[in-house]
Fold:
Amino acid sequence: MTTVHDLPTPALLLDADVLERNVVAMARKVSGLGAALRPHVKTHKCIEVGRLQQQHGARGITAASIVEARDFADHGFDDITWALPLPVSRLDDVIALARRITLRVLVDSSEAAEELERAAQRAGLRVHVWLEVDCGYHRSGVDPAAPAALALARRLAESAHLVFDGLLTHAGHGYHARTGEERLAVAHQEREVTVGFANRLAGQGIAVPAVSVGSTPTMAAQDRLDGVQEARPGNYVFYDWMQAAVGVCRPEDVAVSVLATVISHQPGADHCIVDAGALAMSKDAGPGPADLRRGLGPVYAGLAGGALEDRVTLYAVSQEHGFVGAGDPGGSEGAIAGRFRVGDRIRVMPNHSCLTAALFDEYVVVRGEEVQGRWKIWRGR
Amino acid sequence: MTTVHDLPTPALLLDADVLERNVVAMARKVSGLGAALRPHVKTHKCIEVGRLQQQHGARGITAASIVEARDFADHGFDDITWALPLPVSRLDDVIALARRITLRVLVDSSEAAEELERAAQRAGLRVHVWLEVDCGYHRSGVDPAAPAALALARRLAESAHLVFDGLLTHAGHGYHARTGEERLAVAHQEREVTVGFANRLAGQGIAVPAVSVGSTPTMAAQDRLDGVQEARPGNYVFYDWMQAAVGVCRPEDVAVSVLATVISHQPGADHCIVDAGALAMSKDAGPGPADLRRGLGPVYAGLAGGALEDRVTLYAVSQEHGFVGAGDPGGSEGAIAGRFRVGDRIRVMPNHSCLTAALFDEYVVVRGEEVQGRWKIWRGR
Structure:
């Protein structure tokens, strides 16, 4: 039997028990609110995890790149929303994939709508399209109060070459909320702005087939989805320190961790070095509020379970080196003295599991300390 | 003829003219100082770039991970230093590769030395080993003033199961220097500390076959390498904004850039969105001094050449979205008004080319705006 004590490092561990619990809990939450679940697979990029989500009721998936969408299509996923405002440089790829599966793309500009229509017409296809709405995050999406938004919705709905799927929004500002109350306010805004716009469009004679919302923080808080047909959370399968730090989940709900080996520990040093650097963790700084940060990730107290070290973090990284200690130069020797000897193993919780997963070729699936298998991460670009 | 105007995005462009100039200049610099060049391939992870370095005099290469070392060994590179303190979890991989090529590993502890000796003995091999010396960076490596350093050197030199290659150091603190004068001081320290320790070891009857130093910033400044046999710079093949910002190179010496498409630009917004986010750029914050930072990377003024926009940067990223503008909310509409329309293309200079390259599957090799070919990036983990 292989255990985490035998694995080459760095390795990305995926705790199957925690994963299953997270998948089931979100599926129940969304169906309990009367909506369908279309999870975002950008967090895991993994066919097996996508199938687990399907077994628990996911209807279709959401992808972040056309390569990701294609990889999942190659494995039988046949209803995929590419939730990025359509890059016109990818129109050939979009048409090719739309011939094979139900691919739904996103537009928030007349320029992209026009190029998409032209490509669909040339191909003799009708391509599914969402109109992206800005519900307050102010990244992309049309301002629902702007006259141009109504005109663009009408254009999509009336196009002979497109199938108008409805309105899609992402409340990314929910990631900046620090309390459940703040997240609930963002979740309400996400629903109200988008459903309100759908109703105004209906009043103008523009049928809106569906409203799609969702992020992990807002879905954790959300208490009503009337008027909403589907939700697209992604991070919840794994969670991470960013989510645990602000209380979206508990530390023991985080399903992925990076297993590393201590490779250098000089006598008297206030840090040791592990073989997990920027290309294992990413350089995501973690939660917005500085007081919630734990360097590049908190260090676990053991090789299984959710308990964390009090003072010790992975406080800095270079490309393949990670610095472990209390991170206060000169004052942290006591935190690691007599511990973390060369050859010892540690586990680090990622700040941002989506970015960490994208740096590995596979998950090592574990239950406790036991290795159960390996699942490929489809991280092609 | 394919040009940068035709490519699907995001794409990682590699300017062949700039690459060749950088490769030739560093080879001349190092040989002019009387040392051999053993470039670090962690920056490019690319067989074609490694071969170009060999054509210009590189003798052996340096790798950052055992997977990287194996990938290059599979393509005929037969003398590779793995410049990370040996993770004992990788001993099986080390032995397997040491049977095929001249693999040189690094230790800075008696624990790792002992495990390596035992594995070599079991395998019936003598494994090449460097002793890592801390020349002032204080990441890993033995303190040359510590008695344990001398004892460890003696152990390596006298081992029946190891081949002692000598002393290896990395002056990573050269990355924090802001002027050529500061870098020269670090470069002198790197050489003097390591050569000084080699001389003391010789005085104790311990022969030191070679001294290996080098980083891109210190090699840019270095004016003498007496007592040093080889240098291991890596970043110089591509450079990046971190190097350009502090004057290690000029902006026009940066060989890689990320080609992206504008995918959203709302009327009146002070930003637009491109399809290059954290998984195209990395989240490396760039130069240490905040006044030299340009968000996640400066934006070029055109699709070829080295000129940069004055005010516009890629000032923030989410996973697949990049925010382009002046980055001062409310004040930057003027910087992008009437420009960066949906469908337009831009190029972004990476803050840290090593981390950006590790996010792509291939380089699109260009001369000016013309595409010359594609080179695979061996980013397996």
Summary: Chain A has two domains: 33-238, 244-376. The mean pLDDT of chain A is 97. The first strand of chain A starts at residue 11 and ends at 15. The domain at 33-238 of chain A is CATH 3.20.20.10 (TIM Barrel).
